[in-house]
Amino acid sequence: MTIISARQIITPQEILNDSCLIIEDGIICAIEKNNGSIKGKECIAFDDAVITPGLIDLHIHGSLYADTMDANAQALNTMSKFLAEHGVTGFLATTMTADPASIRSAINTVKECMDHLEGAALLGVHLEGPYLDEKYRGAQPRDRLRLPDPEEYRPWFDSGVVKLMTLAPELEGSDKLISYGIKNGVQFSVGHSSASYDQVIRAADLGLSQATHTFNGMPALHHREPGPVGAVLTDPRIYAQIIADGVHLHPAIIRLIIHAKGMEKTILITDAIEAAGLADGEYNLGGTAVHVQDGVARISSGSLAGSTLTLDQAVRNVMKFADLSLQDAVSMATSTPAVAMGWQTARGFIRVGGDADLAVIDARDQVIATFVRGKLVFRK
Ligand SMILES: [Zn+2]
Description:
It is built from 10 helices and 20 strands. By secondary structure, it is of the alpha/beta class. Zinc ion binds next to loops.
């Protein structure tokens, strides 16, 4: 049994003062007041800090020179440990548009590694592509874009490891793809797409439920052609993923999205690439050269190529950009992604019966410790 206490516990629906968590076998088995009953028992006390649910990143390609497409256990472990240093306890390893063998290999590696990483838990794969629109491909390699092919995607979904897929729903064959994926527990997100408003709504009718880095990789909002942005902002079935690094979206647009969607439908992601955690310089994303300057990653065309953002920094950024409390900001990186993925009984909240996936955050909003299923995986 482990007991962890802090000044406050943000669940995040509530703030509990002067309370502690009692953890057994990686599960929160009780939440109690810090009173005499736990005195004398060994307690890990964070007196000046708050405990929040562990952060969840649904969209991360890499960090510290490691990338999901490296398709090796060491790369995934590097990412897992780096994420834990930033309060992340669960993530979806995110692929790039690539040849079939490379995607297959990335999926297989994730499957082999899922229960064997030292930091944040690897919760599955987010396939970003390869069924994307050419015009809005961003840093996705053009020569590997293709149309949905059941021969190709069925084995991916049958693997049980793919949890989320970003696609352009206007592409021929997308309807069948979405229907097949939904039956196999895959969630769909519109991204790198030039779909019309009606095409996105039709995809949502079939089960599409997220938008990938909203506003990026899609046409700008037009008042007569609302397109993907118009659909995402107005359809309550669709969660909006956002990159809150201050570069991908102007702070006013972040406020607009949160205003339209609410915090319970806005998901903070990083879209981080291998340069995350490293200095400015030359890097690689899916075989394309990336130049990072002042922390901003771009390919030679000038197109943004993912980010170097960490999820704890995204939480601090939205607090500033949208004048939010830590409780509100953290919900968009914990409970909201968990509910979006259907994971809420196990994670995303601090509740009895849930996994003891926890971030400990000090008075300056910095992560000082991280627990994954009750195990301390990072301590500053
Ligand atoms: Zn993207």
